[in-house]
Amino acid sequence: MKQEKLLKIDGEFVVMTFDQVFEKYKNMVYQICNKWKNVIELSDLYQVASIGLYKAFTSYDMKKDIEFSTVAYTYIKNEIRSFYREAKKHFGYLSLNEEMFEEGNEKLIDSIKDEGFEEHILEEISKEQDLSRVYTAMRHLTERQKSIFTKYYLEGKTMQEIADKYGFHVSYIGKVLKNSIKKIKDNIE
Q1: Is the four-CA dihedral 188, 158, 145, 125 of positive or negative sign?
Q2: 86, 131, 139, 147: most buried, per Cβ within 10 A?
Q3: Which residues contact 137 (CB under 8 A, 6 or more apart)?
Q4: DSSP for residue 151
C-alpha cells in the first residue's frame, strides 16, 4: 500500500500519494534545478531535488497549516545546498591550470573559449557586489536577526531546525526572517 498524506494545496486539504505529489511538483523541481545547473550536473541535481521533495512529503505536518508547496520548495532548496556544501568539501575547486583527464593534456582554461564565459564572469562579479551590499545592510539587524538570517540563508538550515535550536515556534522564525529581509531592503545602499 502506498503512503498517503493529507496536504494543503492551493488553500485546500487534499489526500495524495508521493507519486501524485511528484507529478504535480516536477516542474518546480526542474525550475529549482535550473538555477543550479551551472554549478552541479543536472542529473545529480534532479536526484537530490527529488530526495528533497520526498523529505518534504514525509515530514509535512498539516497541523502547521502551511501550503505544501512552501515546505517542498524549502526542503528541495536545502537538500541541494547541503549536497553542494558536501561536494565542495570533499572535492574542492578545480584549478583552471589543472589538466583534464578526459581531454588528455588540455587544460581547463583552454576549454573556456566561448564568448558566454566573459558574460558569466561579469554576472558573478555583479552577484558578488550585490552580496557585499546585503552584508553591509545586515549591520542594521539585531544579533538574533543576524543569527537566524545567517542560519537560514547561508547555512541552509530549515526554519524548524532554527526554531528547535532557539526554542521558538517556526512561525516566529518566519516573522524574524521576513522582518530581517525588509530591514535589509530598506538599508541597501
Answers
A1: negative
A2: 147
A3: 183, 184, 185, 187, 188, 189
A4: I
- Identity of the residue numbered 45: L
Smallest CA-to-CA distance from 57 within 89, 28, 100, 98 is with: 28
pTM score: 0.48
pLDDT number for residue 95:
38
User: Which one, of 58, 86, 64, lies nearest residue 160 by Cα?
Assistant: 64
Contacts of 182 (CB under 8 A, 6+ apart): none
Cell digits of residue 11: 488553500
H helical segments located in 37-169? 42-59, 68-91, 116-137, 143-149, 159-166
- What are 9's strand-pairing partners? 12
- On the question of pLDDT at 57 being above 50, the answer is yes
Q: CB under 8 Å to 106, separation ≥6 — which residues?
A: 99, 100
Q: Cell for 126?
A: 555583479
Q: What is the per-residue pLDDT across 89-128, written as a single tens digit (0 to 9) for each?
A: 665 544 344 444 444 455 444 544 445 555 665 566 666 6
Three cell numbers at 93? 575547486
Burial of 19 (0-12, 13-18, 19+ CB in 10 A): exposed
